[in-house]
Amino acid sequence: MQEYVFDPKDYTLEDKIKFHCYKGIVCFNRCCYDVKLILTPYDFLCLRKFLDMSVEDFVEKYGEVYIGEITQLPVISINMDPYSMACPFLNEKEGCTVYPVRPSSCRLYPLARYLKKNEKGETVEIYKIIRETHCKGHYENRELTIKEYLEEQGLIPYFYYNDLWAQVVEKRQKFADTPLTEDMLELIFTLVYDIPGLRKAIENGEIEGLSKDLLSLPDEKLLEQGMLYVKDKLLTEENLNW
Ligand code: SF4
Ligand code: SF4
């Protein structure tokens, strides 16, 4: 797996970058090999629904579920082809076959995004440019602001749900040394990755504090409720015996 090289400069939303990626560029698809493709809960929901697959079938065909080393929370990642190392969604001629629902990391490339607090305690977004020698988009003569690039890539709804997931991860990291029980890990998986399973559990009254009124919500809003539940109801001092 190739290590990223970051441009040392920090960029803000209004800063301009030079970048253009398009079908036909000499390096077309080169970035879709040997990628560590970790899906956020919102990435997974969008992809799974687009492919019209169950959670189990998707994971069995394309990925794996494991406990993230740093987050100590369940994650789903996509397995590359063991021989060619291509992403399973890549069509060599046409490009990405799941382009309308490609994961946020694919949309964001060649940028990396960080959230940090400024001196006033406000959350600010910082961007870094990833420079890999195979990516020729950096040499194209197109200039646009980071904000324009994010809008072009359809990232705004992804950030909304991914930032909530980042808050869950941040909460978990406050007590990373406290192991979670298997039951809790399973419940967290259901709450954030298995939305059909979450609907069933709510229907059967299996999750205390989640009322059947939530069943009228669309999937992404139910996912939002699931992530809030993990952050505010499961990862608490009381539950984890701080
Ligand atoms: S999901 Fe699409 S864009 Fe992302 S690595 Fe796979 S083929 Fe490439
Ligand atoms: S320009 Fe960069 S992002 Fe676009 S296809 Fe080439 S390697 Fe991938």
What does this structure look like?
The protein has nine helices and nine strands. It is an alpha+beta fold and 242 residues long. The chain has two domains: 16-155, no CATH class; 159-234, no CATH class. α6 packs antiparallel against α8.
What is the element layout, followed by pairings?
Layout: E1 16-18, E2 37-39, H1 41-51, H2 55-62, E3 63-67, E4 74-78, E5 90-91, E6 95-96, H3 104-108, E7 111-117, E8 123-129, E9 143-145, H4 146-152, H5 156-173, H6 182-192, H7 195-203, H8 219-234, H9 237-240
Antiparallel strand pairs: 1-9, 2-4, 3-4, 5-6, 7-8
The chain binds iron/sulfur cluster (2 copies).
Features:
single chain, 242 residues, alpha+beta, 2 domains, two-stranded antiparallel sheet, binds iron/sulfur cluster
What is shown here, in short?
The chain has 242 residues and is α+β, with helices and mostly antiparallel strands. It is 37% helix and 15% strand. β3 and β4 (74-78) form a beta hairpin.
User: Major sheet: order of its strands?
Assistant: 2-4-3
How many beta strands in the DSSP annotation?
9
Integer-rounded radius of gyration:
19 Å
The first-to-last residue Cα distance is 38 Å
- Tally of contiguous helical segments: 9
